[in-house]
Amino acid sequence: MLLFLAALAAFGPFVTDFYLPTLPEQALDFQTSPSTVQLGLSMTMWGLAIGQLFVGPLSDVKGRRKPLLWSLLVFAASTFGAAAAPNVQIFLAMRFLEGLGASGAIVMSRAVAADRYTGKALGSFMGVMGSIQGIAPITAPLLGSLIADAIGWRGIFWILFAAGIVLLAITFTRLAETRSPADRRRSTKSKATPDVVPQSASAIEERTPEPSETLGTSVRRLFGDPVFVAIVLQQIFSSAVLFAHIASSPFIFQTHFGLSATEYGFFFGAMALGIAAGAAFSGKLASPAFAMLAGAVGMLAASSGVAALYAAEASLLAIVPVYFALLVMLGLTLPAAMTAALSRHRPRSGLAAAILGAVGFGGGGLVAPLTSIGEATTSTAILFIASSAFLCVIGVALMRRMKREAAQA
């Protein structure tokens, strides 16, 4: 189940990162500008954002399995369309639909985790899953760069289509188990650790919220919680750092530093190890609030260093360690924010996960085109520093608020 949920959560980075090394080739194929093909990345992020807002609350009411099946079906169909697109306009439309389909997989991975775990166990699980997710941004551009010359950018989308079909088949067969209310009542009598909700190891739990909790009530409870609102803002600015890195990296490291597609794939994968390492360590810190604050302070320091090195026209070897540290600090914050939010709002975990995912990908969709304004190194460095500064302010506010709540409790 851990591997399956990690595979679902990896849809986001895999859908956005797998074809990154082929962006220059795609611009030539469609006879359009780099900013237009970058819009395909934005369209996918907006689809990921909007789709989660539909699928998340729906899964709180209808259960997890059916929304997941439909999401994977939409993903497979739209990826087929993207691979066969005759022009860039159809490709952009298919990318939006592809994001809609992938959104269900992402939000469901988090909601099912919240169904199964609470407290410290949820934090550890999210940290481990975040670390496993690091495999996706490591392998996606690397595989893309290795096979791009042989199969081209369309071949990469045919591989994504096949992956969607495989996960759809797994969801429909091996993980299609549901349990009756009587089974659930019997399972709660079994021995389990306090932070683990007893469930079948291979089942996706079909759950519903309390009968009195409507969608409107859930929304009011979420946005009536100052901590949740702060975490939403935290997700926006941390995603701005993440997607500024994703969108700008092909043009900075291939065009500015002269890396080949294969070299860029290895570089991008190595940098993604930083996010995975930070995510793995996140659950071991004292609290999610401390992890978010520590990550924010570290990001501000590292992004300032990256900006200074870009301004000094330093070599790639000088930039790599500081850039890697920036992504480690980013990895600390991502699972910590999700853990804090879902721990506070388990009865509405699907909606909570959807909102956090939506604002993250929505913000990323807005940020991606900004990296192509002027010199890519300059615009990206500005985005890194500004976002990290806001994250520091949010981190301090969250730490104070959650400490005060703990003292009152």
Automatic annotation (TrEMBL):
<feature type="transmembrane region" description="Helical">
    <location>
        <begin position="155"/>
        <end position="176"/>
    </location>
</feature>
<dbReference type="InterPro" id="IPR036259">
    <property type="entry name" value="MFS_trans_sf"/>
</dbReference>
<feature type="transmembrane region" description="Helical">
    <location>
        <begin position="316"/>
        <end position="338"/>
    </location>
</feature>
<feature type="transmembrane region" description="Helical">
    <location>
        <begin position="380"/>
        <end position="399"/>
    </location>
</feature>
<feature type="transmembrane region" description="Helical">
    <location>
        <begin position="227"/>
        <end position="252"/>
    </location>
</feature>
<keyword id="KW-0472">Membrane</keyword>
<feature type="transmembrane region" description="Helical">
    <location>
        <begin position="264"/>
        <end position="282"/>
    </location>
</feature>
<dbReference type="Pfam" id="PF07690">
    <property type="entry name" value="MFS_1"/>
</dbReference>
<dbReference type="InterPro" id="IPR020846">
    <property type="entry name" value="MFS_dom"/>
</dbReference>
<feature type="region of interest" description="Disordered">
    <location>
        <begin position="181"/>
        <end position="213"/>
    </location>
</feature>
<dbReference type="InterPro" id="IPR011701">
    <property type="entry name" value="MFS"/>
</dbReference>
<keyword id="KW-0812">Transmembrane</keyword>
<feature type="transmembrane region" description="Helical">
    <location>
        <begin position="289"/>
        <end position="310"/>
    </location>
</feature>
<feature type="transmembrane region" description="Helical">
    <location>
        <begin position="67"/>
        <end position="84"/>
    </location>
</feature>
<feature type="transmembrane region" description="Helical">
    <location>
        <begin position="36"/>
        <end position="55"/>
    </location>
</feature>
<feature type="transmembrane region" description="Helical">
    <location>
        <begin position="90"/>
        <end position="109"/>
    </location>
</feature>
<feature type="transmembrane region" description="Helical">
    <location>
        <begin position="350"/>
        <end position="368"/>
    </location>
</feature>
<keyword id="KW-0813">Transport</keyword>
<protein>
    <submittedName>
        <fullName>MFS transporter</fullName>
    </submittedName>
</protein>
<feature type="transmembrane region" description="Helical">
    <location>
        <begin position="121"/>
        <end position="143"/>
    </location>
</feature>
<keyword id="KW-1133">Transmembrane helix</keyword>
<feature type="domain" description="Major facilitator superfamily (MFS) profile">
    <location>
        <begin position="1"/>
        <end position="404"/>
    </location>
</feature>
